[in-house]
Amino acid sequence: MAEINMVPFIDITLILLIIFMVMSPLLVQMQLTVDLPKSQSVNTQAEDDVLRIEVQKNGVITVQNKQFTLQTLKRELILRMGKANKKTILVQADKEVPIQQVVAVFDIAKQLGAAKLGIGVLSKSQ
């Protein structure tokens, strides 16, 4: 009576298992390409309630086309915000600006009582 040799079958099964284990993360990664949509900004809030602050990569801070430094920004925000605590501050920064500079602008705005803080990235056309 002859017996069936199971060793080659087990070897092939283990090799296929290893191949599938190696290839499955690569296949999943190839399938998970995310193509984020471009948004068209819709103004849901009144333009008077939003104060836009732009932080350039050279350190210049711009509020409504007037340039300021970090030291003079606090005085300017006091004048612009007044006693209206319902202002929203939107900080738009260049992608090469150090995050510490953006956080410093957030700190100044929060000290002055800004209702909401937002962050954005400056577009290339600016």
Give a concise summary.
With 126 residues, this protein is α/β, with parallel strands linked by helices. The protein has 3 helices and 5 strands, in the order αβββαβαβ. Helices cover 40% and strands 19% of the residues.
Strand coverage percent: 15-25%
How are helices and strands ordered from N to C? HEEEHEHE
Q: Could you give the order of strands across the largest sheet?
A: 3-2-1-4-5
How big is the Rg?
28 Å
Note the gap between the termini: 85 Å
**Considering DSSP H and I runs of 4 or more, what fraction of the residues is helical?**
25-40%
Mean pLDDT score = 81
The biggest beta sheet is recorded as:
5 strands, mixed
- Uncertain parts: none
Structure annotation, total helices: 3
Looking at the structure, the CATH topology of the domain at 47-121 is Nucleotidyltransferase, domain 5
- Class based on secondary structure composition and strand pairing: alpha/beta
Label the overall shape. rod-shaped
What CATH first level of the domain at 47-121 would be assigned?
Alpha Beta
Question: How many beta-strand segments?
Answer: 5
CATH architecture of the domain at 47-121: 2-Layer Sandwich
Question: Explain this structure to me?
Answer:
The structure is a single chain. The chain is of the alpha/beta class. The chain has a domain at 47-121: Nucleotidyltransferase, domain 5. Helices cover 40% and strands 19% of the residues. It has helices at 7-31, 70-81, 99-111, and strands at residues 50-55, 61-63, 66-68, 88-93, 116-121. The chain has a five-stranded mixed β-sheet with strand order 3-2-1-4-5, covered by helices on one side. Helix 2 packs parallel to helix 3.
